Structure formats: C-alpha cells, structure tokens
Amino acid sequence: MGLNVTEIAERVRSLRESEGYPQQEMADAVGISLDEYVENESGKNDFSFTFLYKCAEKLGVDMIELLTGETPKLTEYTVVRKDKGLPMERRKGFNYFHLASNFKHKTVEPFIVFAPYDGDPQNITIPLSSHEGQEFNYVLEGRLKFRIDGHTEILEPGDSVLYDSGKMHGMIALDKEGCRFIAVVVKKER
Q1: Does 149 reside within a domain?
Q2: What is the pLDDT of residue 3?
Q3: DSSP letter assigned to residue 122
C-alpha cells in the first residue's frame, strides 16, 4: 500500500486550517522555511518522517491520522504480523513499516526500517534531522553509519543506540544489501 502524498498534504492543510494556524506558524513548528512548508502542504514534495512527526505534534493528532486519514482505535494491544506493518517511504528510499498504527494514544512510534545503500559511504554526507523526544535503533541486518552531534558510530547486527533525538542525527547503510533496523521513537513527555 503506497501512501498518497497529495492526500497526506490535504489532511495537513485541513487540520492546520481547522486549528487556525497560519502556514508560517506550522513552518516554524516543523523547523523549515515558509516556502518549503507551502510546497509540502501543496503536495509538491514527499514528506520526511520528521516533517510528519512534527506536524502531528503541532496539530495534536496521531501521525497515523496524517498518513491514512484514520484515527487509531485500539487501546489494550495491537498485533502486527511479519511484513504487515503500515508501509511508509520517507527520505530517499528509506522504507519504514509502522508496527503499531492501530494503537491509540501511543507514547512510542515503533518501526522496522530499511535503509538502502546509496553509494560509497566515505563520499556521502549523512542527511541530518531532529525531533523532540528520544529514539532507540537496533540493527537487525547490515551495518549502519550513525551520526549525532558530531559523533559517528558504526553499528552492526545486534548493536543498538539510544539518543536524544532533539539533537541533529542521521544514518546511512554501509553495505550494498542495505540495512534493516528497528527504530522506536519515544515521544516527549507533555
């Protein structure tokens, strides 16, 4: 199931308007320029995880509502079978599979992520982003080059990292087969 960028953009715009937020306020909340925000909201650009996460926080909705138009309903537990997570492609080839999209009032956003190999890692600048809260990554397959606040780590299968996701961070796959890892985004306490 592919997610329609135009539909997601329309949901962001509709929610923003219903909350009475001007575009500049949303751009500030997301941490991008007004022009970039307007392009995203018009559906001209695909969205990064960070953009969607910060929009959902500002708009007071679950990120899944922006992605699917549906409000999560389960409150006791949710089971997601192998290879059945809600698919999202965010950030040039990174494939995310949300592992709790039906669970209401989540305090975490759990994903299986596939990071593709994108050429010689020595010559690639790692794209960095930030979002409130903390994040936990656990490598399942392949190797991941992880960067945060000027520090770089090479993570192999079985390695993990927990970090303040409010710091600028990013990662790339080091192997031609790519890298699969578990990512758990822990929301900031309110």
Answers
A1: yes
A2: 63
A3: G
